[in-house]
Amino acid sequence: MSNDELSTPTEDTSARRAFCTDEDFIASWQGNDSVEAVASLLGMKPASIEQRARNMRKHGVPLKRYAAKARTVKDEAYWASMAALAEAAIEDDEVNTNA
């Protein structure tokens, strides 16, 4: 096997990766109200956007903070509704299997 065969990538990842300058990133971050909006605008994954913002803050860039996502309270009522959902799915599966 030649060196050319070893170094040839199996797929071109450059076509899938989005790039933006730090200036464009900051303008997009400061001009939007959610990580998802910035990710959509820049064509990047939300996790990549969050990591880039963390890194910039670590280096002293004062990016604004977005509101935290609402969390689901997982109390006894929540788990009871999840159990009922699972039971209903099992019953539906049994009815379809026996039909």
Description:
By secondary structure, the chain is mainly alpha-helical. The protein has one domain: Arc Repressor Mutant, subunit A (Orthogonal Bundle), CATH 1.10.10. The protein is built from 5 helices and no strands. Helix 3 packs across helix 4. The longest helix is centred in the last third of the chain and has 23 residues. It is elongated and about 60 Å long. The N and C termini lie far apart (58 Å).
Q: What is the arithmetic mean of pLDDT? A: 83
Radius of gyration: 23 Å
Largest sheet: none
For the record, the CATH class is Mainly Alpha
Number of strands: 0
What is the CATH topology assignment? Answer: Arc Repressor Mutant, subunit A
- Fraction in helix: 55-70%
Number of domains: 1
CATH architecture: Orthogonal Bundle
Q: How many DSSP H or I helices?
A: 5
Sheet/helix structural class: mainly alpha
Order of helices and strands: HHHHH
**Low-pLDDT stretches:** 7-14
Could you give the distance between the termini?
Answer: 58 Å
Strand content: under 5%
Quaternary: single chain
What is the general shape?
A: elongated
Compact summary:
This protein is mainly α and 99 residues long. It contains five helices and no strands.
